[in-house]
Design brief:
The chain is an all-alpha fold and about 240 residues long. The protein contains ten helices and no strands. The longest helix is centred in the middle third of the chain and has 33 residues.
């Protein structure tokens, strides 16, 4: 079966699964709402970053992006769906590539839309501080934010394929982002920069300190996502359906 046909079939699965559509809607709504709250924070704080505050909702919205990637893959491990998919597409690598593409494209498009809406919402309540970030920095943050959310969805998708369980993947990734990265991560010193979430989130800031910049940070997140995808591909190709 040609790749385009496989991709079309995988896209139909995602489009018709209500939980996946709902997850993307939650991503937009939650990110925008919390960005409005973040934009209203005290601009007198010496560490205040107007661009980062305006996009702060994405830090919570990324949980929805992770859930989207994990759910899209975990659905294949229920009711023998994976056996049916592989019977139609015996070349497992082609099938998995189509699945990942069907996850990446909507995650990227919705991610860019989410970042743009969050930026508007955050800046609308920021007052005079909204004039701080340059147009170039705002464009970079919106596009980079969309790429970051896509990478986190792929990271979750690959991890889910490796574990063959969406619950297990979310049970590890969500606490990692909410506890390890934010609570324990600060004690790790410079190494915290290279965590998948911390590295990618640099693109959301107007200014930054440390080894990584916006694009090198996204590159680090890409390596994490690619590693998870490679591990997931190994699981799909080598293990029984």
């Amino acid at each position: 079966m040609p790749f385009a046909s496989v991709l079309h079939a995988e896209w139909l699965k995602i489009r018709t699964l209500r939980s996946l559509t709902g997850t993307l809607l939650v991503l937009v709504a939650v990110s925008t709402a919390f960005s409005a709250l973040g934009g209203a924070s005290d601009s007198g704080d010496p560490e205040f970053d107007p661009l980062s505050n305006a996009l702060s909702g994405l830090l919570l919205g990324q949980i929805a992006a992770i859930a989207f990637g994990a759910t899209a893959v975990s659905a294949e491990y229920h009711g023998g769906a994976l056996r049916v998919s592989l019977a139609a597409v015996p070349r497992r690598g082609r099938w998995f590539a189509a699945k990942l593409t069907a996850v990446a494209l909507p995650a990227l498009l919705v991610g860019v839309l989410t970042a743009a809406a969050s930026l508007v919402a955050g800046r609308s309540v920021m007052g005079e501080a909204a004039a701080g970030p340059t147009a170039g920095a705002q464009v970079r943050a919106v596009l980079g934010g969309g790429v970051y959310l896509m990478l986190m969805a792929l990271f979750a998708a690959g991890f889910t394929a490796l574990l063959r369980s969406g619950i297990a993947a979310l049970g590890i990734l969500v606490p990692f982002l909410l506890i390890v990265s934010f609570v324990i991560g600060d004690a790790a010193g410079a190494a915290v920069e290279f965590m998948p979430d911390r590295a990618g989130q640099i693109v959301l800031r107007e200014s930054w300190d440390g080894t990584l910049g916006p694009w090198t940070g996204l590159a680090v997140t890409t390596v994490w996502a690619a590693s998870a995808v490679a591990a997931g591909a190994w699981s799909v190709v080598r293990r029984d359906a």
